[in-house]
Sequence to fold (227 residues):
Amino acid sequence: MERMEVLSSSVRIGHPLTYAVIRKLTEFYLRLKGGLRIVGAENLPTTGGIILAPNHVSYLDPPAISIGLKRRMASMAKAELWKNKFFGKIMDGVAAFPVHRGASDREAIRTGLKRLEDGHPLLLFPEGTRGDGVTLGKFNSGAALFARRSGAPVVPIAVHGTETIMPRDGKGKRAKTTLVYGKPFLWSEEGSDDKFNERLQREIIALAAANGWTIKPPESGSEAPSE
Fold:
């Protein structure tokens, strides 16, 4: 039986082999479907807890984002994904943990903070659900909460192409995937959740613009989505 890393008596950080296989298969798939470009991987801290905060456009995003990291990341995912026992085992294997949306999930918050405290990267989608790749959804409070309470640096990430390969409607096409990892910053540099979210939005938009595509800011008055 393969060994699991243990953060506490009840919190696991996945199966090393499962994680490695999923990451390699995703990389192979993305290259096959149109190519893969990784920019700014040198901005990723190689030690300590960090928060990975990308725009979200496809179910491919989590394994795609892991390709640029030299270490395993944990991720928060909607609890519904564990309804299928087989898929749930895969989610456990890739160090994902469930969050029940629509209410404050204290257990998920404790788990995420513990993983950051123990020095693991944590993937969080500030939009909370998949967007269209054109306009950001309004950011929810999740990334700001974890950044504020943990003190961990936050890495803005811009993702492009996965929304074409694996879109919401299932009618995928070939496309080149681009992953851009920005320079990390701290919640304390902004001093409030609103200012933190505004900066994170600006950083993601700027990363996209510097690498050949456009992401628009959230529409005025839009609500943070809950898929």
Observations:
- The chain has seven helices and seven strands.
- Helices lie at 16-32, 61-66, 85-93, 106-117, 142-150, 162-165, 193-210.
- The mean pLDDT is 89.
- Residues 34-210 form a domain with the Glycerol-3-phosphate (1)-acyltransferase fold (CATH 3.40.1130.10).
